[in-house]
Amino acid sequence: MELPSLRYVSTRGRAPELGFDDVLLAGLATDGGLYVPAAWPQWSKDDFAKLAGLDYPTLAARVMAPFVAGSVIAGDLEKLTRAAYAGFTHSAVAPLTQLGANDWLVELFHGPTLAFKDYALQAVGLMFEDVLKARGSRITIVGATSGDTGSAAIEATKGREAVDIFILHPEGRTSDVQRRQMTTVDAANVHNIAVKGTFDDCQDIVKALFADQAFRGEMNLSAVNSINWARIMAQVVYYVWAALHVGAPARAVAFSVPTGNFGNVFAGYVAQRMGLPIAKFIVGSNSNDILTRYFETGAMTTQGVVPTLSPSMDIQVSSNFERLLFECVGRDGAQVARLMDGFKQSGGYSVPAAAHAEMTKLFVGHRLDDAGTKRVIGEIYRTTGELIDPHTAVGVHAGRVAGLDPAIPRMTLATAHPAKFPAAVQAATGVYPPLPASLTDLFERKERFTVLNNDLSEVKSFVRSHARR
Known about the structure:
Layout: E1 8-10, H1 20-26, E2 35-37, H2 45-49, H3 56-64, H4 77-85, E3 96-100, E4 103-107, H5 117-135, E5 139-144, H6 149-157, E6 163-170, H7 176-183, E7 190-195, H8 199-211, H9 213-219, E8 221-222, H10 229-245, E9 253-258, H11 263-274, E10 278-285, H12 290-297, E11 299-301, H13 321-328, H14 333-346, E12 348-350, H15 353-362, E13 363-367, H16 370-384, H17 390-400, E14 410-414, H18 422-429, E15 450-452, H19 456-466
Parallel strand pairs: 4-14, 5-6, 5-8, 6-7, 7-15, 9-10, 9-14, 10-13
Antiparallel strand pairs: 1-2, 3-4, 11-12
């Protein structure tokens, strides 16, 4: 059955409505906002129950179908999802591991770069290819990464003739494995930029490039960060998958999510808006705890970024929070734009009391420093034999201290393989987690990257001079 086409609107209310294909290629809206569906698809408990027992690629196609209605990929979506997940190393794609009574891990590290970003980007890379082929056009992807998005995006787009990709990462602020997974890819269309600054600096540069309408048009810019709606859409799948495996929709579930840019946990919110019975989202923060402080106070205020054992969360500007804000202020784009403008100018804003109250019915935040992270990694290993990475440890801790009803299944998203952070895992457990066979020679491969200052004009010149047009 053909589904009605779905339109998308900007969170700031001043950009045109678009269909999925245009949203995929645009990434960021022209008014600086983020795209969300004009209306959320609504599923009944029976609709969710019918998905039980499906394999991951089939379930992925069913969950994403309403969001790509009207797209050139709609007719072959299951073919695309089968190709996207064919190379994952676990036959279940996203297996669940039990840590205790109603305490679960959702293993999201069985893709080619060993992190949860693969679950979206392996599909999104194929979506780019199909849409660009249908249009006979090409794009220049520019993205910022705090560690995992970059390698997953590069893996998904390397060697594609219609795509050039430029990934900015903060120099010296990723793990060695994370950096090398990006910088050792030998492909003519891949360019790595190490920025002398933080992830937030990288993200600011990317947003500024998109805000420059002349440059954006000249280079036909597109995004792979979670500002791109397609990333969020593809991540909704594993929330539905995991919930079904512990008894949903017949029972409510809860998710604990180690969170930096808020895209991963927002995907769960999308599943909840569709009708999946999720009782609570627990946001896990490291010492860069802007989100936990927000949920505690209602004020979003930046502080300096502190390097931690969980670098993918070393963020003070959580871009995807804007999507939740849009929903909780009644989809008032003008109000969102005012708050975002104020945030850019002063580094802070306060959310209206009613909107904050609505958010905290569903979201709660908890923080964990590096000492606590090591403690949790060690404790999980001693009590279960499981090795977990530092980000996952933050999520496990947040879930356990959240005070939820113990009868509700609580699932922590295990967002990265422990081998991506071997020093931290070994310090906590005495065990050095080995890399999978496909990456055993990672430290022997030649690195390719360019170090640039935290300067918009430098990055713009580099992109312009290295893109194939």
